[in-house]
Amino acid sequence: MAPETPDTGVRANGTREGPAWSGASSAKETKGNGHAQVPDLEAGRPPLKSQVSSLARVDVPITVKFRDVRYEVVIRPHEPWFQRLSLKKTGEAMGVVRKEILHGISGAVLPGEMLAMLGPSGSGKTTLLNVLGGRLRQGASGGILYNDLAYQKSMKRQMGFVTQDDVLYATLTVRETLQYAALLRLPKELTRGQKLLRATEIMEELGIEKCKDTIIGGPFMRGISGGERKRVSIGHELLINPSLMLLDEPTSGLDSTTALRILTTLDQLAKGGRTVITTIHQPSSKMFLMFDKLLLLADGNTLYYGAARNAMDYFAQRGYTPKYATNPADYLLDLATGEVADGPENAQAVKDELATAYGQTQGPLELQRMDSLPAASAEDQARSVGKKTWPCSWLEQFVLLTLRGIKERRFEALGGLRFVQIVAISVVCGCLWFNSKNRTEADIADQTGILFFESTFWGFFPLFTALFTFPQERQMLNKERAVGMYRLTAYFFARTVGDMPLELIMPFVFTIIVYWMANLKHSAAAYILHLLTLLLAVLVSQSLGLLIGATVMDLKKATTLASVIMLAFLLTGGYFVRQIPVWIRWLKYISFPYYTFRLLLKIQYDPKSAYECPGASPDNTCLIQNAPALHGVPLGGGGIEAMALIIMLIGYRFLAYAALRVLNKGTK
User: Fold this and answer.
1) Do residues 318 and 357 make contact, with C-beta atoms less than 8 angstroms apart?
2) Rounded CA gap, 111 and 384, in Å?
3) Pick from 171, 238, 167, 253: nearest CA to 208
4) Confidence tier at 247 by pLDDT (50, 70, 90)
5) Residue 401 has pLDDT above 90, yes or no
6) What single DSSP character describes residue 50?
7) Fewer CB within a 10 Å sphere, N or C end of the chain?
8) What CDD domains is this protein classified in (predicted)?
């Protein structure tokens, strides 16, 4: 590393450009590592505690070394599907381009240090952070060592990863969010009381205990502030007392005071012996003084890596100093974008020059320093791997996720909007089919209409409700699965079971109103079978919605696909078309409204009963089995239809889980 020299504000040619940078006052107290002591400026918040568990020294310090890290993506051309079928699966086909995002990044971060990765948008900061966190493995190359060990899946329980977007449940309170995370993530050796106490300690240490009973909130729901939300995200990771913290732009979108407090929190974490790596965009001069090391990136290349306090001197020695007093981070970003020169061509030349200069001078020195670091002890290596067992059993995960899911949807359940919607539709249907009869052919035709409406309505309604489940929770699922929070099977069963109470109570309300207003078969057994049929149809419909949502994971595409499927099922449901062409007849056998409609008909009508048909027989009656409105459905029985619905229920659920498993195989 180049020796530290005072910044005189003079270019290499001897002309004075003004002071290189301004930040803290010269009279400001500094830490032993040269950092200024920054006071806590956020009004109304208590100072962070330094002697309690989560900010105290960690048990397993981790040194991160990365050498010649590269990352490339495969860019495929937007070609018609029939052309893509002919492309080679190896990726060497015509038109396939490989683009390298990171170009040989190297460095090391020791316990107790905070590394800031600085650079403009598109410089590769987030990509590098994800590679270092083990979240981007396919396409990555180079050596990344944690206490001189390669990445292992169990290491993720020693890491805390905070994404740029705060992925939290909007309807849970701060206390509930951290308590459920503690119960799911902390080791089974701790009692329930100890885990809950841990969540309380985290809230106190991060200064969010005052808003512990306030919901997180979202775009259309008022909750805690942005700074508090970010601290909840950090607390979510601090619960496990991680040795390595990785944060993606933790100050993005926050005001300067709140951002400073977040950086103060990270500084406290580093003081406790943690290794802290964060990307950051345009930090203030006070924040800049808090960084131990700086990695300046431009277009995936390293322009500078080393002590943050030496960065300005390094560039001054190469003839780059600001013309006037400025925030050092702002000037470094100008260098990373090449804006110190006039014109886009000169800007690219500046970036190329600085990348080449680093590779020839500073880079080799830093590699030598990294090679000279002491090797990790066998004890530290063994402890850094982490436990390969789950923090709690499958049953505990299922119960906790189910309870969390019910609480998360309590506003939806108690809001009454869906209840009012179902009651309104039920009353309208009850009025339209009020006191229906089955005496004549016209009466039977009208009565079968309400049965077909029930089979289609309870096919559409639950499907489009379930359709949003997995696409809306994709970010949350990826986040929690990436840190090994629970098994996917536990989440899948908990999520589907948690939805059932709300989904199943609606058909019950519907049938209570419609069944008796429409004067359907007066029999307790018939009513119960009628209700059970609709409940089974709801579960099948919900399962199909989960399958489509898990497969597509895009709401617009999923909604379009679901509409096409349900319209096809509607048309082949046995009500509109009696004689379906042979080549498309198979559609009705995979249509669950088809089986639901047939089952409702068999429950409603006795094959031995008759209806009035003047002139058709001596007694002017006909068997109801022969009524044209029944579309030739053989009355009696119903076991085949019920079994078909049960098979669809199991099949759709299994396929939905399989789709979810394939989608999340990279985040386990």
Assistant:
1) yes
2) 13
3) 238
4) very high
5) yes
6) S
7) C
8) ABCG_EPDR
CA nearest 310: which of 4, 622, 600?
A: 4
Q: What is the pLDDT of residue 115?
A: 94
Say which residue, 575 or 523, is predicted with more confidence.
523
Half-sphere exposure of 132 (CA within 13 A, CB side): 34
Length of the chain in residues, anyone?
Answer: 668
d(CA 259, CA 41): 10
DSSP annotation string for 394-425 = HHHHHHHHHHHHHHHTHHHHHS-HHHHHHHHH
Place of tokens 């020299």: 5
Mean pLDDT of 412-439: 83
The structure's pTM equals 0.78
Domain 56-167+238-385 class, CATH top level: alpha beta
**Residue 626's pLDDT band (cuts 50, 70, 90):** confident
Q: Can you spell out the DSSP letters for 555-578?
A: HHHHHHHHHHHHHHHHHTSSSS-S
* CATH 3.40.50.300 residue window(s) in the chain: 56-167+238-385
Higher pLDDT, 387 or 402: 402
The amino acid present at 92, given as its one-letter code, is E
Radius of gyration of the chain (CA): 32
- Show the tokens assigned to 511: 């049938």
Q: What are phi and psi of 56, to 5 degrees?
A: -80, 175
Is pLDDT above 90 for 632? no
Asked whether the beta carbons of 223 and 254 are under 8 A apart, the reply is: no
Give ∠ CA 146-151-153 in degrees, rounded to 5.
Answer: 125
The yes-or-no verdict on residue 45 having pLDDT over 90 is: no
- Categorise residue 104: left if φ over 0, alpha if ψ from -120 to 50, beta otherwise: left
Q: How far apart are CA 176 and CA 172, in angstroms?
A: 6
